[in-house]
Amino acid sequence: MATINVSLPDAVKAWAERQAESGRYGNVSDYIQELIRKDRERTEAVAAMQTAITEGVASGEPAPLDAAAFKRRMRRQRDIG
């Protein structure tokens, strides 16, 4: 595993240390890794949502929702997946 040194203001360092001491994390490094992992997941989720929005806007004029057909499609996907 690679090492990186990060300078933190005293208040932020104290916060990270308290999080590690809470027992939820083994140490400050574990806490920082969790923050980075969550930020990465959030960034990827926002990008996926933006892609879906862009595709939706580009797909043309909206059509009325056929709720029954939508439910059937979702059930088929669930049964296949």
Describe it for me?
The chain is mainly alpha-helical and 81 residues long. The chain contains three helices and no strands. The protein has a domain at 8-59. The protein is elongated and about 55 Å long. It has helices at residues 10-21, 28-58, 67-80.
Shape descriptor: elongated
| Head-to-tail CA distance between termini | 35 Å
**Unreliable residue runs:** none
The largest sheet, given as strand count, sense and whether it forms a barrel, is: none
Kindly provide the radius of gyration, computed on alpha-carbon positions and rounded to a whole number of angstroms.
22 Å
Q: Overall pLDDT, averaged?
A: 95
Q: What is the H/E order?
A: HHH
Total beta strand runs: 0
Share in β-strands: under 5%
Helix amount: over 70%
Assign the structural class, choosing from mainly alpha, mainly beta, alpha/beta, alpha+beta, or little secondary structure: mainly alpha
Query: Number of helix segments?
Result: 3
